[in-house]
Amino acid sequence: MQAALSAPASHSPRRRGLLVTVFLVALGLHIAGLFVAGVWIVARYFAEPPATFTVPTRDIRVPVQSREHKMTMAKHEAMAPKPTFSDRIVSTRPTAFSLPEMPRIDMDQLLPLDPSQIVSDQISGMVGSGGLGSGMGSGGGRGSGGMGGTGLSFFGIKTEARRILLLFDVSGSVVNKAKASGVPLERIKEETSELISKLPVNCRYSIIQFVRNFKPFSEELVAASPTNKDLAHQWIETQWDESGMMPAGGQGVKSTIPNGLPFVLDYAFSLKPDTIFLISDGSFEQTTPTDGNRKVPGDEFEAQLKRLQAAAGKEVPIHFIGFQMRPEDNATWRRLAQRSGGKFREMGR
């Protein structure tokens, strides 16, 4: 009994020794690990860093005076005239052939243009009118037209306007009077086509035929491009009314009540022309709902033109070309033309 109780007591010192040994070994291992880690960290601190390769950047600045000097020199060189070749080909002995003469050049086409006028005309022409183009086109028609804007003449009346409108009274009486005055219908059409051919590209124009109803070439003034000139020549040849009646419902005919020249003038001024050519015998009739058929008196035209000129905000000259006019009609339209700043001419006198 006593021996059994003393056995556990004899193992106690040995167990404590084993535990102490294990603890000391573990502590030694930790100390050794800390020592190794400290040595490694210290070695890294004292070791040389690895080599790195970089490309140095240089900030190059041009002095202000030097840069301004170079810009001045470049501007001077750009303004300097370019070298020209002035030597001519000269033959030192006769040859068996001769060189052709230089072609004649129309100097009117070399005149300077007003760029602002061309741009404004082309922009407004882009909207088109009744299938009419407003570009330059490639057709030549009956003439290319000058590049200027002056020196235009129609039946001897000169104009420098850029927006021209032609009004033709094509009633039977006017056609007969024009023929009797030595101006047959063919000459009127030729004179009109010739004027259109000479219009420069920076001009705009249109044509209106009327009796009591009227028929316009276009719904607005169109640019004097080769394409539009060709269309105008075709319209003159195929659409010119020779019946002297122009009934309502015809191709392109505009009609209303009251009709006649007062209605035509209202429409004409809505196109904003710079000048108007009016070709007639000076005697105008119209149909009204109250009076029926009647001759329009001169004082009504005078009042209407005052109103239209004031609405236009500028003086629109009306050039009148007449045929075998009555004395009272002659006096009326001579006065109205002069008051508007236009010219008056009666053919055959």
Structural overview:
Helices cover 42% and strands 14% of the residues. It has 9 helices and 11 strands. Strands 3, 4, 5, 6, 7, 10 and 11 form a 7-stranded mixed β-sheet that branches. Strands 1-2 form a two-stranded antiparallel ribbon. β10, α9 and β11 (344-347) form a beta-alpha-beta unit. α5 runs antiparallel to α6, α7 (261-270) packs parallel to α8 and α8 runs parallel beside α9.
Elements, N to C (H/E): HHHEEEHHEEEHHEEEHEHE
The outline comes out as elongated
Radius of gyration, rounded?
50 Å
Helix coverage percent of residues?
40-55%
Structural class: alpha/beta
Beta-strand percent range:
5-15%
Total strand segments: 11
What keyword list fits this structure?
349 residues; alpha/beta; two-stranded antiparallel sheet; 14% strand; elongated
